[in-house]
């Protein structure tokens, strides 16, 4: 059975409706085994959204689509609840899904319950390529200075 690890960067007790997200994933029954890992930031960190990482040990299109659908449904529900409480701009929810090798597979963000989720996968891949190029260039500069 494929395992999904939900990794969060803040205590789960501080995440509105977090239990609902985990319950939604666990409701998939025999399709996935779900575990939660709290990996809180140390020191100071400012985010304008809530960041969630999922590590999926099966990277089939079906698995990613099912997980994304559960996450989006949950995020829309929580954002709609926030708007109902008078929050003009509730914090967006970001999800990055990683494969078993630790490489990112997909990134989506839900900013507004009345708008479709934004797929940021291409931006994420472009940033990764730019980072690799910068590392390569830095290594080349170090070699040429030696």
Structural description of this entry:
The protein is of the alpha/beta class and 146 residues long. The protein has one domain (3-120): GMP Synthetase, Chain A, domain 3 (2-Layer Sandwich). The protein has three helices and six strands, in the order βαββαβββα. The protein has helices at 18-26, 61-84, 121-145, and strands at 3-8, 33-38, 50-56, 93-98, 104-110, 118-119. Helix 2 links the parallel strand 3 (50-56) and strand 4 (93-98). The termini are far apart. The relative contact order is 0.15.
Largest sheet: 6 strands, mixed
Distance between the first and last residues' Cα? 52 Å
Number of structurally distinct domains:
1
Determine Rg (CA atoms, Å).
17 Å
Order of helices and strands: EHEEHEEEH
SS-based class: alpha/beta
Number of helices: 3
In terms of per-residue confidence, which ranges show pLDDT below 50 for 5 or more consecutive residues? Answer: none
Strand content: 15-25%
